[in-house]
Design goal:
The structure is a homodimer.
Chain A: H1 2-9, H2 16-28, E1 32-33, H3 34-39, H4 46-58, E2 62-66, E3 73-77, E4 84-88, E5 94-97, E6 110-123, H5 124-137
Parallel strand pairs in A: 4-6
Antiparallel strand pairs in A: 1-3, 2-3, 4-5
The first copy, chain A, binds a DNA duplex through helix 2 and helix 4.
Chain lengths: 138, 138
DNA sequence: TTGCCTGCAAATAATTTGCAGGTGA
DNA sequence: TCACCTGCAAATTATTTGCAGGCAA
């Protein structure tokens, strides 16, 4: 199995909990908070989720991000692909954007190694509701 | 004074504390955490700093962000200008980037209203230290 | 076997909130 | 005057950590 390989390559033991966390993140395919992950386990300790996520970040298997004004961290697999997300300001839904609209920035006296882009706006659903709300007011 | 005007235009009372917070943010010209702001006041209550920052965000005078893996919020004046920051992965220093290397993204079924870009890398100082460290190893 | 893992509960740290008194318009 | 502000302390919430037992290699 692929997951076992990733773990052992990183020098980590293949425990049931770690495999479970990896499976959840693989299936989710979107950034997940520790709480999100925990909710999909069958009673795994929340601190174990945090510890596993932390360890996987340390090994470069996961990335840890904060999103918008959220007061928590979100973890996601670093699949190799460079990804960005479009975040709906109304419902908070996140959607993956496959293209990267960022031109390689060239900054004087600074060695650029990467970047993170968050795109804000409204998803089709919320946009429609906004329009409806507007009409109602008129 | 300009600050008083901003506050009263927003329908807020011009209290000494609010003016102080605005002055600090104007002078800092970089995102500041509540703690950062608090450290520059003369004993203002930390919860007051939080309450003022929250109110100013609500009025669209400040923006509230999280940076990298930091576990706190940073506030900055929305001066009208569109800004991004280059963040040093080694020392955490933030530096303003005046240009915006993001091409207006066009996403199917999503109404884009804005974006946030963080650029990661190493400042000249830290880059130099990395080079030195490398040489030492050789 | 043995050191790395995990669960549980307690500890941190950032942020929020209730309440009583203070202050700007 | 009076509604809005502020300080203080206690409450919340996300995350971390100590410790004792458990499991992978």
């Amino acid at each position: 199995m692929e997951i076992n390989k990733i773990l052992s390559n990183a020098g980590l033991k293949c425990t049931g909990q770690r495999i479970k966390v990896m499976e959840i993140l693989t299936a989710a395919d979107l950034p997940m908070s520790a709480e999100n992950i925990h909710a999909l386990t069958d009673g795994m300790s929340l601190s174990t989720v945090y510890r596993i996520a932390e360890k996987l970040c340390e090994k470069g298997i996961l990335s840890k991000n904060t999103i918008r004004d959220s007061d928590k961290f979100y973890y996601e697999l670093i699949g190799g692909a460079h990804r960005h997300y479009a975040i709906c300001l109304s419902c908070g839904q996140m959607r993956r954007v496959n293209v990267c609209p960022v031109a390689a920035p060239d900054i004087d006296g600074f060695t650029v190694t990467g970047h993170k882009l968050e795109i804000y706006g409204y998803c089709a659903e919320c946009e429609r509701q906004k329009q409806t709300a507007k009409k109602r007011v008129l």
